[in-house]
User: Fold this.
Amino acid sequence: RSRRTSVADIKALKGVRPIVSLTAYTAPMAALLDPHVDFLLIGDSLGMVVYGFETTLPVTLDLMIAHGAAVVRGSTTSLVVVDMPFGSYQEGREQAFRSASRVLAETGAQAVKLEGGEEMGETIRFLTERGVPVLGHIGLTPQMVNVYGGYKTQGRNQFQAAKIKADARAVAEAGAFGFVLEGTMEPLARDITAEAPIPVIGIGASPQCDGQILVSEDMLGLYNEFIPRHVKRFADLGAEVSKAAAAYAEEVKARRFPGLEHTFQPKV
Ligand code: KIV
Ligand code: NA
Assistant:
């Protein structure tokens, strides 16, 4: 078994080649994606794409830990990063450390991700100085949906742009090993990437980011509730699942499945 990619390895990739990342929530999907990515993220997006919630807010720490452990068991070489869910870190740095240390100890993942810029600087510093590597997440931050009243592209005016730039600086200065930049105007995303001393992982950001991440269910066509502009469909597995289920139903009703070759017969 080869050594897993470390956060130091990820940092060293800035300026060398684009960093590749996808979300994973289960052991079998982690095993399929592992050879192709630098890091796997157990995103709290699982609340929407796996559990059918309308936002990421209902996701609990226990749920993230259960799925994080499954992804660690299913993978061998990728860095594994687990999202801190809503309510598990916003209260303050001690609460954040308590939650994050449970994530690392109970899953075997090597890092956590949390949303927020300047307001999370102190928390990010507290965690990284105590053994918890942190991936930041700024720009469009889905856990703030109730404050913004929707999922809105960020950086559309100079006011917002200045705030996101300040967030990027704060997260880097606090010791994050990188940050996700989501749903941000492209020229601004490009500027932030050029200025940041750490890897910027884009989603709905810029081709010039230091890396890219997508929600696997989105890029595989397994989640069709809403298809944002930033998603490219690399496969249409949803259609494949429908086709397979329809074929199965037809064969069962026609008594064509199971065949005798799928049954257990006494030896004569
Ligand atoms: O929850 C998630 O999947 C994420 C990625 C979109 C970055 O945070
Ligand atoms: Na997330």
The longest helix spans residues 237-253. Residues 69 and 107 are 4 Å apart (CA to CA). The beta strands are 19-23, 39-42, 79-83, 111-113, 134-139, 178-182, 200-203, 211-214.
